[in-house]
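ok posting inputs for the adenosine-5'-diphosphate job
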Amino acid sequence: MTRSVRIALARPIRRLFDYHAPDQQNVVAGQRVRIPFGQQSAIGLVVDANAEAPEGITLKPILSVCENWPALPDETRALLSWASNYYQHPLGECLFTALPPALRKGRAAERPSHTQWQIVVEAPATLPANAVRQQALLEWLAEQSCARETSAITKAGFTRAQLNALAAKGLVTGTETTRQEPPAGDIATPPVLSQAQRSACEQLPAPESGFTASLLYGITGSGKTEVYLHYLRQHLAEDRQALVLVPEINLTPQTVKRFRHYFGGRIAVWHSALNDGERLDTWLRIREGHPVIVIGTRSAVLLPFTGLRTIVVDEEHDSSYKQGEGFRYSGRDLAVYRAHLNQCPIILGSATPSLESLHNATSGKYRLIRLEERAGNAVPPTIKLLDIRSRPLEGGMAAPTLQAIRDCLGNGQQALVFVNRRGFAPVMMCFDCGHMVECPRCDTRLTYHRKDRAMRCHHCDYQTAASDHCPACKSEAFKPVGQGTERTEEVLMQQFPDTPVIRVDRDSTQRKGSIQSILAAVNTGRPCILVGTQMLAKGHDFPKVTLVVAINADGGLFSVDFRAPEQLVQTLLQVSGRAGRGEVPGQVIIQTCHSDHPMLQQLASGHYLPLAEDLLAERSSGGFPPFRSMAILRAESATMEDSIGFLDQARQQINANQIDLWGPLPAIIARRADRYRAQLVLLCDSRARLNLALKTLCQQLDQQKRKGPLRWQIDVDPLETG
Ligand code: ADP
Ligand code: ZN
Ligand code: ZN
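and the output
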């Protein structure tokens, strides 16, 4: 029987390709190879080096191996095969996602070398008079205290050509080195752990216990970072690796700084702003087994660790851990599986744990560790609900809110104004009586569609024209709920002309270095007002912020998305948690038209766990995750008819044995970029049965011929269900 080498390609196809290896080539699984593919060649990854060759086909030979070791070690491949099956995403794309761009493109797996330039002779007189820039470069190099990298030289305004010209004349010399790890710097003495922190740390099982998952429920400002650090210092062997996942690195540079202080050059960072060279360098350091501690965002969970001994997932509830397109994995969930593969501990930390993780803690799968005191001298903030019905608003803010900001600034403190945008389904609401229009056939609110001024139900086909006055009290203050940051910023600047108003949102933080300048302004400690969206709710530690205002809490209260209440509660508590982290106690004002809403009332107590229990009870009675497994089949095409038709047919094909099917329904945003989007929701008691049904469905859908360009995709454990 002939043997073949089975290879995966970086293509969205659910199949592998068979080749044969020339005898002298020793090919192993995980290795990168170059193969002939169509008219060209392609980089492939060996999935099975010794597979059974399909019959009756002459196999083409592999052209070459890229290196004589497997780029992806066994454990990383096991993780990705599992993920490919779990998320129904083609194996090839999963495997290639775990390679740095340089290796995907077929470049050599070598740590990029850097040339360090220095001057040979001081003040040479041999340069022609017109070589002004070369002369300037020589002078610049002479001023440097050490040899400088090419990149530093070009950054200083010189060119490679000038450098080469000087080298050719023998005036400067370059030495090749590989990139140095950042110097260890001073190892700062860690603060003495509080009693509560020490107790939390002691409850975390050591790596010797094998696989354990701990949910560290630590309120905002309780000093979770210090607990992670202490745990790693105490338990991570010098020759082992660790992974610390964080939602977004550039928002909280102080976290990396604190880790660097303790672990110096052992710290490697991994995030989307690295360039190809930096990625390759870090990736290879990890692959070579250096004892690094990686602090990284979502995709760091796919790095080729070979000695992983501890995993930490900070802010484990954060939605950025779920990839929103293509290979839709959850970084947090893969981290748990990876800890299991490595038989090592994982610590999931949050002040507002996801209902999934809490459920795992209650059911005994995870252990729950509580840290319910703030670190240092800080105390939890007081939360006040401010009912804004019948109150005039300016930029979304009521008079008592503006007064509170004025008082806060007057006391020399800083204020933070949070504009809630997520989970924002535009609903028409009466600002006098709080009335919202419900669907006569379902237990949901109608959503407002600005374009045709209609109100629609997303659970049935009911629709009605939007009126311009409240159907209940006839008031004309009947408007879509929602408030932009720009308008709020404008009003704040008018009201407080002498105070810097700093806007923090997607747009204002995208530019390189902008978050640094924002943080620098806040860290001066001088009075200022921060205004922004969701980004302000993430992990920041601003000791001088003593007032937090949430100007429109209601956006997510009545959303059709089953996750909206959880996300609203998490966001409000997280943003509240920015108040009073220093010496002065904090105060939070939540503006709402529903101050009597039980969920908000409970939230004002500041205690998350009882709230989460209620939300879990609702999930349970509704049959939602985590009590049932969920997946969504999404389709988009040129017409809604085609999208719905495709999903209708898929619905027929699904073996509906104990699988609940909802839809097909148009998506909440039914048309995007001229494509019509629809979805079919699958819910099942058994994860295994759902997985099998999805797998069969994928195979069938792959084989079907369809007219017109229709795209479909499966989202397992979806975060967004609209
Ligand atoms: P969390 O992530 O739990 O919200 P952080 O880790 O950001 O909290 O810590 C909050 C603040 O408390 C930080 O400024 C940190 O330096 C400080 N801190 C943490 N532990 C201690 C301690 N044991 N003593 C004094 N200050 C501490
Ligand atoms: Zn309805
Ligand atoms: Zn009304």
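notes: The domain at 4-73+85-104 is CATH 3.40.1440.60 (GIY-YIG endonuclease). The chain has 21 helices and 30 strands.
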